[in-house]
Each structure stands twice: as structure tokens, then as C-alpha cells.
Amino acid sequence: MAATLRIQSDWSQALRRDEGEAWLSCRSPGKPTLYGSLTRRGLSTEGVPDIAASEGFVVGEVTKITCLDISSGGGLGISTSTDGTMKIWQAANGEIRRQLEGHVYDVNCCRFFPSGLVVLSGGMDAQLKIWSAEDASCVVTFKGHKGGILDTAIVDRGRNVLSCSRDGTARLWDCGKSACLGVIADCGSPVNGIAVGAADNSLNLGTPEKAPSEREVGTEGKILLLAREDKKLQGVGLQSRQPVFLFVGSDAFNCCAFLSSTYILAGTQDGNIYQLDVRNTNSPIQVIHRSGAPVLSLLPYRDGFIASQGDGTCFIVQQDLDYVLDLTEADCDPVYKVASWEKQIYTCCRDGIVRRYQLSDL
Q: How far apart are CA 358 and CA 347, in angstroms?
């Protein structure tokens, strides 16, 4: 009988070779070990790798990793998949520690709370969930969005969290009461990414129309960035719910990040990375364009940032955003998300593999 292999994000599933081939083995109690190989033949029309298995193996399903994060101490990693599951693994060697199950359909985003013991996730089922990284239990489920959740953010230590959705809204949640504290913005267009950060003191964040709930913790002086599908990057006062700025880009915005309380980044579907000053967003400080592939992830790193794109490129921009170090070239699968801890950088791709890069001093 042929062995059915479900290709997942596990590092230990197969030994991958650069030319698109991977060796694998399957051991059953009392039976000889079965050895074989996988060969990638290209991409399907849905963008999923077309995988062929050698004799004795059958490829039953191919899933892709959609997001990942590394805990604050660097010991654990979390990754999400299109099969509705998440995995917690040892960052040092990829050994799976826990599997988190509870979402329906794709899990789009995940991140560790600052403690490194709790995980926040959002999926296409429009549910936002909080999990224990220690026993894999789901301790809280938030419901309120009318469309799939595309990104999340954590306010300070995590008594409040944020989410954005295909329904065009960004919402603030109270973890202790498992309740929505309010809609921060209703954009009328999907919000693909969000980021929260402390605002420059000179920035006018607006005044709340009513007194904030006592359950809001750490929202004062914060600005929320919204990367919108309708080509707009918006800044909103987190506590006031008032618009701060609205910048129109060249295409749909996929992601955004803070470089500091003054400078921000945002990436578009047509490959532009905008650097803006929140005090004056009339024109960008600079626009970085390396290819026309979508910018999928932006992550502050040291005195610069890491970016990944839909053509498989992943690169570090350093030294006043003038020096570029390429981690991958443009012949790989799209790199959906980047995470880092100290000199280690982790990426997840459509091919279902988490890769780790060890950097020397830049």
C-alpha cells in the first residue's frame, strides 16, 4: 500500500534539495523503512506547488505557510497554515512542540504576546483567538468581524489587542473581558495590514468623542497604521479614533511598519516601499522599488528593515536605508512573512518551508 504524505511546515518532514527535489522516509512498526523522493513540477493555477511522489508514496495535500513569529526570548516559533492549523516549534531546530487546532479554513496571521507564553491568531473564519503556548488550549475567541482577519497587533503588554479584516474594519479588543472595545476605523475597503506605535509628540492625534473605556490600557499617545486595499495608507489616533493622515499610493497596500515614532514604512502590490514622515505625509521621503512583485512583509531590524516580496526576494536594508543585503533571490516562492531574533531571521514561503538565516555582524 502506498504511503500518503501530507506536506506541511515541519522541518523534519523531508530533506529538501535546491533543484526542487526532497528525499523522504516513512517508518511503520514491524515493517522495513520506506524511502522515496518528492519532485516539484511547477505551480498549479491556484499558485500551489505541483508535487510528484516516487513509487510507494502519494501526495494527498499540499498546504502553504501563511505567517510566522518568534517569541521574545527566541526559543519558540509559531507558524500558520492554509489547512486551518498552527504549529509551535523549537526555533533552534524546528522540532514541533504543539499543534493548535480550532480555526476553520486558512489561518492568516499569528504573533506571540510579549510574554512568549501566549499566541494571538486570526483566520478566514473571521475569528480572533488567544492560545496558551504551553498546553495548546484556546483560552479566548473573539467574534465580531464580518470577513476574514488579515492582520493583528498587540498594544503594550497585551491587555488590549487589535485586528483588521476583509470587512474593512480595524477593531480593538479587551482580552480580560473577551469583548470588542470599539471599531477604530471603518474604511469601506479591506485592511490588509496594521501596525501600532507611539506617536511623535508634535503629532495631533485628535480628541475622543467620548471618554475611553477603563478597559482600554496603553492606547493613549498611540497611532494605528492601516494598509488598505484601495491604495490608501491611513493613520488613526488609537484612543481618539480620529484620522491623522491619509496617503494615497500607487497600488493596494499590503503591509506597514514603524521605523520610529516619526518614520514609517508601507509596501504595495506593485512593488513599492514607501518611507514616510508621519508629521508630513504629503510626499514620501523615498520610494524603494526593486521589482514589480508585491511587497508582502516589512519588519524593522536594527537601524533599517527587512522586506520580502512575491517573487521570492527577501532583503535587509541598513545604514540610513542605503545598504542592501539580499537573503534570497527572485527564483523562489513568495516570501509571505519575516520574523527575527537577534542575528537569526526566519521566513515562510508558499512552498511550505520555514527557513532560518544566521547573520554575521552587518
A: 12
Question: Residue 125: what pLDDT?
Answer: 95
Q: Looking at residue 60, what is its pLDDT?
A: 58
Q: Which residues pair with 357 in a beta bridge?
A: 345
Instruction: Output the CA–CA distances (angstroms, integers) from residue 173 to 126, 162, 165, 183, 312, in the order listed.
Output: 14, 6, 14, 9, 34
- The one-letter code for the residue type at 156 is D
In which residue are the cell numbers 475597503 written?
189
pLDDT computed for residue 318 by the predictor: 87
Distance CA 321, CA 303 (A): 8
Phi-psi domain of 158 (left: phi exceeds 0; alpha: psi -120 through 50; beta: other): left
Please name the helix (run of DSSP H) or strand (run of DSSP E) that holds residue 295, with its range, or none.
strand 295-301
Which pLDDT value is given to residue 7? 34
Residue with cell 471599531: 183
Asked whether 332 and 347 are in contact (CB, 8 A), the reply is no
What pTM does this model have?
Answer: 0.85
Q: Enter the C-alpha cell of residue 182.
A: 470599539
Which sign does the torsion angle of CA 147, 148, 152, 157 carry? positive
- Spell out, as residue ranges, where the chain has pLDDT lower than 50: 1-19, 362
* Distance between CA atoms of residues 301 and 299, nearest Å: 6
Looking at the DSSP assignment, which residues form a beta bridge with residue 22? 16, 38
* Distance between CA atoms of residues 242 and 340, nearest Å: 32
Percent of the chain with pLDDT over 90: 70
Length of the chain: 362
DSSP-derived secondary structure for 220-247? TTEEEEEEETTSEEEEEETTT--EEEEE
Q: Are 325 and 362 in contact (CB under 8 A)?
A: yes
Dist CA 146 CA 262 (whole Å): 33
- As a whole-number percent, the residues of the chain with pLDDT over 70 amount to 87
CA–CA gap between residue 116 and residue 224 (Å, rounded): 23
Distance of CA 21 to the CA centre of its chain: 27
How far apart are alpha carbons 220 and 8 in whole angstroms? 41
Burial 28-54 (b: 16+ CB within 10 A, else e): eeeeeebebbbebeeeeeeebbebebe
